[in-house]
Amino acid sequence: MLHDLMPILLLFAVSAILGVAILILTNLFGPSRPNPVKLSTYESGKIPIGGPRIRFSIRFYIIAMLFVLFDIELVFFYPWAVVYRQYLSLGSFIFWEMILFIGLLLVGYFYAWKKGALEWE
Prior knowledge:
mainly alpha; 2 domains; 64% helix
């Protein structure tokens, strides 16, 4: 069994060694001349006002995660539509599976809506 895992272990070892080697070499040979101009924040040539960290509302992150979640789930519609005619011999099974999938998406969407996750205030 170890013989089967050897390529993966070798890949991890080479990756770790290469990553550490790159970090060490850049610290040894890379130029390091910090000054206040280089360390300041860059905002299109304007003088920075306030701190560089802006606190976003948690609602921004929740809506972004919901968008990604529903967007990725909707990607499954395309392969289903492509192979739908090829597998009509399965009867209505493939159709009802997609209806179940859409139903689960709608349940998740309405749950998020009722909990107020989509409200932007």
